[in-house]
Predict the structure.
Amino acid sequence: MTARILPLIEQYGYLVVLFGVMLESIGIPIPGETILIVAGFLVHQGTLNLTTTIVLGIFATILGNQIGYWAGLKGGRPFVVRWGYYVGITPERLARVEGFFVRHGGKSVFLARFVPWLRAFGALVAGIGHMHRRSFFFYNILAGAVWATASVIGGYLFGKSLGLLETWIGPGSVLLVIVLIFLILVFYLAYRFRGKDK
């Protein structure tokens, strides 16, 4: 997957980041996470700018999710089932995502962003279920900011080891490793600063 996305971003740059991530967030199953991780790798190589890549990733995530939410809200389940067929949204997959949203409520918008099979359909299901607009918008912003930032920084930090890492643990787990490293770093710094205060 990485080998196919890398030349696309090298050729078209930020357009691939913007439209790739936005289309996935609308409900089209495109590998948005891999796009951002590869973009982070290209930041490491000096091809892309870190701040611009993160901001575009966040913006594309939030905008795409808002469009997906609106499509689900206005079109309802029949619309999503009818047109979703062309992008791999089957009634069975949709039912699984709806079950997840019923179990987890508002925070499901945030959680869905970090689960590959939920990510593309989360906003649509939130719209179908008539989730409160403010609640959706809040979790959408929070999820988009954390997910896009972590994905880009992960690609930046792993640099040349990115392909090997994806081979070992799979692209869907890369973000989990990044979050764990981030948490370990936060706890380590908190421990160090607390020790200095004593």
Notes: The chain has one domain: 2-197. The mean pLDDT is 78. Residues 50-84 form the longest helix (35 residues).
